[in-house]
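In the laboratory, one determines a bound structure by crystallizing the protein with its ligand and collecting diffraction data. In a computational setting the workflow is compressed into a single prediction: the sequence and the ligand go in, and a structural description comes out. We illustrate the idea with zinc ion.
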Amino acid sequence: MYEARYAKNGDLKHSDECKMAFGRKDHNCPRCLELLAGAPSRSGWQKDHYSRKAREEESYRKAIAEHFKPGGAHDQIMARGGVGTAFEW
Ligand SMILES: [Zn+2]
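The predicted complex, in structure-token form:
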């Protein structure tokens, strides 16, 4: 039967017989040997979450700066007499 030896990201997988417990690596498992040789551990959800959050906050900051720059949307709205429509800001 086909046995997936690699995870989606290309790392080796722990073997089915891997006895790793509490971070103590199993010297008969290819992935444990890879980790012992210094391979980085997989990145969890936190890295993805915080990098996406930083990108989103950066784009909000840009949108706000764009809106309030001289001659931008804010100045045009104020020149027309101020906010008059729902969702105008
Ligand atoms: Zn292992």
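The chain has a mean pLDDT of 87. Keep in mind that any predicted model is a hypothesis to be tested, not a measurement.
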